[in-house]
Amino acid sequence: AHQAEQYFARHAAEWDRIRSMHVPESRVEAAIVGMLGTRRIETLLDVGTGTGRMLELLAPAATRAVGLDISPAMLAVARANVEKAGLRNVQLRQGDIYALSPAETNFSLIVLHQVLHFLDDPGRAIREAARLLAPGGRLLIVDLAPHAQERLRTEFNHRRLGFATEEIAGLLADAGLDAAATTALGPE
């Protein structure tokens, strides 16, 4: 946790550029919007919100949105981005992905966007998120597919080199959730 906090503090200002080194964000965001459809989002929780990009994308369709991150530096960037976007229905909080507040439950949508590959125990994070879902709620996971880019461990503090679809489905099943839909995006 300390290593992750130090890493994100060093890279908060350039995080969107680092993230864009993968599949273009425009394609990822179009896939996210397509998967979620037009169903109203009552309450949104973006766990590991980073710069708040998922809040910018999804909070306009939500009644209430919360962005959670362990890094004060990332939250500062997210706060500026949320304010610039004029999102008045968003709250930003510092918190631990492994110990989400029990007072915050019944979210209709929880997002784990490019988070799991930074974690030692992604299953635990998914179980925590599942605990906070409202009945019929949805958990959206966006992460890297399996790859062999070892440099991402040292340069970007990745703990995992992506996830196979079957692995994510197993983690969801362990949390009592079903993998309802999957979309794979490859590099251009």
Give a description of the structure.
The chain is of the alpha/beta class and 188 residues long. 39% of the residues lie in helices and 20% in strands. It is built from 8 helices and 5 strands; from the N terminus they run H-H-H-E-H-E-H-E-E-H-E-H-H. The chain has helices at residues 2-11, 15-19, 25-36, 53-58, 72-84, 122-132, 151-156, 165-174; strands spanning 41-47, 62-69, 90-94, 107-113, 133-142. The protein has a 5-stranded parallel β-sheet with strand order 3-2-1-4-5, sandwiched between helices. Helix 6 (122-132) links the parallel strand 4 and strand 5 (133-142).
Structure keywords:
single chain, 188 residues, alpha/beta, 5 strands, 39% helix
- Helical content (DSSP H or I, runs of 4+): 25-40%
Strand content: 15-25%
Radius of gyration: 15 Å
User: What is the N-to-C succession of helices and strands?
Assistant: HHHEHEHEEHEHH
* Chain-averaged pLDDT: 86
Largest sheet: 5 strands, parallel
Parts with pLDDT < 50 across at least 5 consecutive residues: none
| Cα end-to-end separation | 33 Å
* Number of discrete helical segments: 8
Give the overall shape: globular
Q: Class by helix and strand content? A: alpha/beta
Kindly report the spatial arrangement of strands forming the biggest sheet: 3-2-1-4-5
